[in-house]
Specification:
Distance between the termini: 47 Å
Structural class: alpha+beta
Strand content: 25-35%
Number of domains: 2
Helix content: 25-40%
Order of helices and strands: EHEEEHEEHEEEHEHHHH
Low-confidence stretches: none
Mean pLDDT: 91
């Protein structure tokens, strides 16, 4: 018997993290957005502080603000190390290691909650998208975060995956899967719509319609995410 999908609770929690250089620096530079690219590695735990390191994608409203922010973060008293790995006009990929009174990342994971996406920091607030299998897991995470800063719950409810969020149906997802496995998106194309329809066992017209509908939802999303991170 197929397992039935289980509803789980999700929340997006904003945290002004007391004493954390990310909250402090982004509050000082409101035109800056930090997006977590790698897991947060916490090390050198002490009774009142923890050292951490990770990769950030930094987005700025202008080139001058980006340069000012990178200079400020590198010279911040709690920064242990900061290196620019890649840099564009309004964005940069950086390695950052710093000291903080606590690790919000560890606090959340210790409650059994998990992340559904990267942590983003903007205008002083860390934005944590999380889910919890335990019905009380979200409340546990909120209690933990309230001990290390000021929290705001942006939204809370049942978790919906990216496919549901974009409105891609099962049949549309299957058409995409066949297209990818058949190298339909290589250039020049290694397969034609007739080939894909044969694999799917449906008419060429039906396959094309499913594929185009899926592409119309997925391509704008992928383009926005790419441009946000790299330009």
């Amino acid at each position: 018997m197929d397992a039935k999908p289980q509803k789980i609770k999700a929340a997006t929690v904003k945290l002004y993290h007391h004493g954390c250089p990310n909250s402090i620096s982004s509050e000082k530079h409101p035109g800056i957005t930090l997006e977590q690219v790698s897991p947060v590695i916490a090390f050198a735990h002490k009774p009142k502080s923890v050292a951490y390191k990770l990769l950030w994608n930094v987005q700025a409203d202008s080139p001058s603000e980006l340069n000012e922010y990178l200079k400020y973060l590198k010279g911040h008293a709690k920064t242990r190390q900061m290196r620019v790995i890649d840099k564009g006009k309004n964005s940069a990929l950086i390695f950052h290691s710093a000291n903080s009174p606590s690790s919000s990342y560890e606090r959340i994971l210790q409650t059994g909650a998990v992340y559904t996406g990267p942590c983003v920091t903007r205008a002083g607030y860390e934005i944590h998208p999380i889910v919890a299998i335990d019905p009380h897991g979200i409340n546990k995470a909120l209690n933990e975060l309230s001990e290390i800063g000021d929290i705001k719950v942006a939204n809370i409810g049942s978790f919906k995956g990216l496919r549901a969020e974009l409105g891609i149906t099962t049949k549309q997802a299957e058409a995409l899967d066949i297209a990818l496995k058949s190298d339909y998106y290589t250039w020049p194309r290694s397969s034609k719509l007739d080939d894909l329809a044969k694999v799917a066992g449906i008419s060429r017209r039906s396959l094309q319609e499913r594929l185009r509908r899926a592409e119309s939802k997925l391509i704008p999303y992928a383009a926005r995410e790419f441009l946000k991170k790299h330009f």
